[in-house]
């Protein structure tokens, strides 16, 4: 049985036209590392019954403010009926609330409740603590390199447009 060729972090057919192979390789490695780190920091909160999608929904509501279910579904990338079920679940957990849409009394807008806001704060605090413990394990050279890299990562984050 033949084995598959080793894959580099750059996916086959990736849109890397106009950049060197070294830059494409670095981009692929960074994408994978950030994805793994993000996954670890957004690990489901089993106690509260939260999944990454539920946490992302709460985060969007915190940032964007009240939204109709359809608009929220579009931002998350799921169907409106699925978002309705998700919002119902978050409502049962007292993490969101539904209020009449001031522009259309037949519709509602979903917003983050005080409980949802407090939960996001606790999750961020937990994630920051996890990351701080990992950073504390770096040697001095690693700390210096990371400190120098953060402004560059912030710059990339500010200029990167989601697909």
From TrEMBL:
The record's annotation in Gene3D superfamilies points to: Winged helix-like DNA-binding domain superfamily/Winged helix DNA-binding domain (1.10.10.10)
Where is each HTH marR-type domain found?
27-158
Cite a single GO MF annotation: DNA-binding transcription factor activity
Read off the Pfam families from this record.
MarR
The record, for SMART domains, names:
HTH_MARR (SM00347)
| Name of the protein | Transcriptional regulator, MarR family
Supply the source organism for this entry. Pseudonocardia dioxanivorans (strain ATCC 55486 / DSM 44775 / JCM 13855 / CB1190)
């Amino acid at each position: 049985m033949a084995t598959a060729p080793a894959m580099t972090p750059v996916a086959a057919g990736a849109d890397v036209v106009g950049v060197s192979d070294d830059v494409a390789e670095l981009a692929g490695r960074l994408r994978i590392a950030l994805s793994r780190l993000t996954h670890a920091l957004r690990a489901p909160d089993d106690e509260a019954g939260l999944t990454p999608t539920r946490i992302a929904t709460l985060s969007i509501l915190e940032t964007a403010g009240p939204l109709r279910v359809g608009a929220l579904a579009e931002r998350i990338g799921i169907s409106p009926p699925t978002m309705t079920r998700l919002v119902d679940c978050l409502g049962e957990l007292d993490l969101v609330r539904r209020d009449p849409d001031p522009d259309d009394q037949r519709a509602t807008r979903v917003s983050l409740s005080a409980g949802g806001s407090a939960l996001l704060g606790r999750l961020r605090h937990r994630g920051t603590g996890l990351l701080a413990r990992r950073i504390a394990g770096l040697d001095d050279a690693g700390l210096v390199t990371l400190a120098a890299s953060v402004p560059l990562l912030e710059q990339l984050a500010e200029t990167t447009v989601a697909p």
